[in-house]
Amino acid sequence: MPELDELNNKPSSVKRYVPKGKLAQAAFKLALETLTTPLLHHSLRTFLFAKWLANTEGSTYGDQDLDSLFVACVFHDFGATENHDHSERFEVCGADAAIGDIWAAIALHTSPGIAERIHPLARLVRLGVLLDFRKATRDELNAHDYGTQIEADVPRLEIEKVLGDAVVQQAVSKKDAAARSKKAPASSWAGLLLRSHLEDPTWAGVNRAF
Q: Which of 26, 67, 148, 184 could form a disulfide with 194 if both were Cys (CB 3.0 to 4.6 A apart)?
């Protein structure tokens, strides 16, 4: 279960953002059992950004397919947790908690140029992640005001450091070189984070490749 963060943002305080459908409610319950509070907050912000974009564009993922969008967003970093860490890239580890289009959306959320084109759900998850992490994406989509609003309710809690460190630690824990390469392929996002860490293992800030 997530621990209470220093700002005392209990998981229950963000439950109002969870869709009422049975699938979304079940997914949120599993997320509470699986994700740390920073990862949970990031996943919820990703969903809120993706939903905002879906509504802006008139996508069905903003209403009738909302549960699928929620599951894809709230599960997208499951692979960065201990319970879902196995030999594959963290994106694939997280995707294996789902099936079908949701699997693809999770597995491809760090794959620029592919996620945006392979399926509308994958595109929304990818852009939801970018809207949470990239000022340039907020500039492009005119999402700064909305971002400020949701961050007031769902704080960031140093997610860049938390997520970057989690992905690197998974790779470092694979002592065999072949296993490490499989976990964090050189050209993948995890691989870039790992290389940055290995170049300066004493660095204590946010991973420079984040």
A: 184
**CB-CB contact of 124 with 61 (8 Å):** yes
Q: What is the DSSP letter of 59?
A: -
**Distance (Å, rounded) from C-alpha 210 to C-alpha 161?**
8
Give this prediction's pTM.
0.91
Query: DSSP character for 203?
Result: -
Residues 79/89, Cβ–Cβ less than 8 Å:
yes
The candidate with the shortest Cα–Cα distance to 47, out of 25, 30, 71, 27, is 71
How many residues in the chain? 210
- The rounded distance, in Å, linking the Cα atoms of 198 and 154 is 32
For 111-158, where are the alpha helices, taking DSSP H only?
115-118, 120-133, 135-141, 144-153
Q: Give the CA radius of gyration of the chain.
A: 16
Structure tokens at 46: 């990703």
Candidates 91, 161, 169; CA nearest to 133 is: 161
Q: Residue 169 CA to chain centroid, in angstroms?
A: 17
* Of 6-15, 42-51, 180-189, highest mean pLDDT: 42-51
